[in-house]
Amino acid sequence: MKFFIDTANLKDIQEAVDLGVLDGVTTNPSLMAKEGIKGVDNVMAHYKQICDIVDGDVSAEVIAVDFEEMVREGEMLADLHPSIVVKVPMTRDGVKAIKHFSEKGIKTNCTLIFSAGQALLAAKAGATYVSPFVGRLDDIGHDGLVLVQQIVDIFSNYGYPTQVLAASVRHVPHLIQCAEIGADVVTCPLSVITGLLKHPLTDNGLATFLADHKRVNS
Ligand code: G3P
After folding, report:
1. What is the reported pTM?
2. Is 26 a domain residue?
3. In a domain, 214, yes or no
4. 89: part of which helix (H) or strand (E)?
5. What residue owns the CA closest to ligand 1's atom 8?
6. Which domain holds residue 119?
7. What are the helix (H) ranges across the chain?
8. Is 74 domain-assigned?
């Protein structure tokens, strides 16, 4: 399973790279705004910086909502760096744009997926990734992981090359369950990735090993 970090924070991205387990980055307009990145030139420069830090796919989302503008914006993003994946929302124009990008060999990530039907449509249009939002479905009383399972099963039934990128992954159990289901990718904050390190028995065991070593070597 690939690990993507869901942030536009360069320090967090660098920390995940340094850990040696990062396969890519996803961003969205909210995450860019959180870092205070505004204006086309600054946004483009920030994406470039992210691509220079990470060896892997970097999703950069279009702001446009109509087909022509999505295509213009997406092509500009794709020209920025070979790692850029154009992130497109699940709308009628978005599906048309995904088809267009797919025919031009530009990678896409179809975002804001909340149903299996939306994922199927994006796969048929040639999306490289589909992003079901696990946590946001949980927020409204649904089980986001059931959707991930449905999409994995459907893509497997037909051998679709589209990768299932579980997004809005909020905590370690989400990530582990995505791995059990067979999601191709999870994207999550740094805290979820570093959360995988933690177990109290590891801490206690290490403390005992070091204390025993010190006792006989001092
Ligand atoms: O990748 C989508 C993600 O940024 C949404 O996460 O936690 O805001 O639902 P969240």
Report:
1. 0.96
2. yes
3. no
4. strand 84-89
5. 168
6. 2-190
7. 10-19, 29-34, 40-53, 67-80, 92-103, 116-125, 134-139, 144-158, 172-181, 190-195, 200-217
8. yes
24 CA to centre of ligand 1 in angstroms: 15
Cα(192) to ligand 1 centroid in Å equals 13
List the structure tokens of 178: 């995505």
pLDDT digits (tens), the chain, 218 positions: 999 999 999 999 999 999 999 999 999 999 999 999 999 999 999 999 999 999 999 999 999 999 999 999 999 999 999 999 999 999 999 999 999 999 999 999 999 999 999 999 999 999 999 999 999 999 999 999 999 999 999 999 999 999 999 999 999 999 999 999 999 999 999 999 999 999 999 999 999 999 999 999 98
Q: Is the CB of 6 under 6 A from ligand 1?
A: yes
Tell me the CATH number at 134. Answer: 3.20.20.70
Total domains in the fold of the chain? 1
CA 88 – ligand 1 centroid, Å:
15
